[in-house]
Amino acid sequence: MQREDPGQVLVKSLVSGISSGTELLFYRGQVPPGVPADEAIDSLRVPVQFPLKYGYAAVGKVLQVGEAVERSWQDRLVFAFHPHESHFVAAPEDLIPLPENLSPQDAVFLANMETAVNLLLDGSPQIGERVVVFGQGIVGLLTTALLGLFPLHTLVTLDLHALRREHSAQLGARSCLDPSHPASLNHLNALLDSRERPTGADLTFELSGNPEALNQAIDVATFDGRVVIGSWYGQKRTSIDLGGGFHRKRLRLISSQVSTVAPALTGRWTKRRRLQVALDMIARIHPSRLISHRFPISAAPEAYGLLDQSPGTCLQVVLTYP
């Protein structure tokens, strides 16, 4: 540690997770110009320009502590919303100390699990509801795992890739459909049919990253249905059809973003409470089983290339540090 950093600690990274959604938008140059990398994370409050140091899911061990830092931080396992790099200096208040029984491989999912918890807080699933999730990337799979804990009427998921659909079923989805199949939407509507009218999905999550899926989410929603939009589309555009049943069904389109808690919940919910729930859910679900590939940090270009070119072959890709 440098003497000018008495209130900081030095962290050695053990593993960091790549976000196949947000990070690929940066990788592909699809982030709108002028948008900060992330205003909610101190280390990412920088303009988007290349080269860019990015990432927000690092798990490491505290190697050294500054003179003004409590000794209890020494050797602590911590999570940080910090870019991919082997070592970094941080203030203790920017680190999340991890329980001893939580492995680094499970803990690396904390950022995405907090996003999944936030999605459920925004969607408010209720007993007996018919729920559909478009997109089974990591955030979609974690959302499915949380929804699978609820006593729903049905839980249907959709994703283009068979590997994701397979894991979706293991995590609690009753049916997992391929949205590219010509009969998939008819099948979905049949699964949502009910003797109780109106039929359709009470709650739909659009997490695919594909703005065209939003039209499908709107189509399958029932009267007064909620459509939670968790995808960040960046510069991707498509035409949204609001001229069909959207108005007559009185649908609610809900934007969900983990940097804030929904205003209606702030009387009872704080970011700290939400984060603790995410930690509890990680301990319950053990998401490390979703790690499909590990690359040393020196092979990061290969890791991003795999996610970009062969998304159907991987789930969570992580970087490791010697």
Write the layout of secondary structure elements.
Blueprint: E1 9-17, H1 22-27, E2 58-65, E3 77-80, E4 87-90, E5 96-97, H2 104-107, H3 110-123, E6 130-134, H4 138-147, E7 154-158, H5 162-170, E8 175-177, H6 184-192, E9 201-206, H7 213-220, E10 221-229, E11 252-255, H8 271-285, E12 291-296, H9 300-309, E13 316-320
Parallel strand pairs: 6-7, 6-9, 7-8, 9-10, 10-11, 12-13
Antiparallel strand pairs: 1-2, 1-4, 1-13, 2-3, 3-5
Describe this structure in words.
With 322 residues, the protein is of the alpha/beta class. It has two domains: 9-108 and 287-320, Alpha-Beta Complex (Quinone Oxidoreductase, Chain A, domain 1), CATH 3.90.180; 119-264, NAD(P)-binding Rossmann-like Domain (Rossmann fold). Helix content is 26%, strand content 22%. It is built from nine helices and 13 strands. The chain has helices spanning 22-27, 104-107, 110-123, 138-147, 162-170, 184-192, 213-220, 271-285, 300-309, and strands spanning 9-17, 58-65, 77-80, 87-90, 96-97, 130-134, 154-158, 175-177, 201-206, 221-229, 252-255, 291-296, 316-320. The strands form two sheets. Strands 1, 2, 3, 4, 5, 12 and 13 form a seven-stranded mixed β-sheet that branches. Strands 8-7-6-9-10-11 form a six-stranded parallel β-sheet, sandwiched between helices. Helix 3 (110-123) crosses helix 4 (138-147) and helix 3 crosses helix 8. The longest helix has 15 residues, at 271-285. The mean pLDDT is 90.
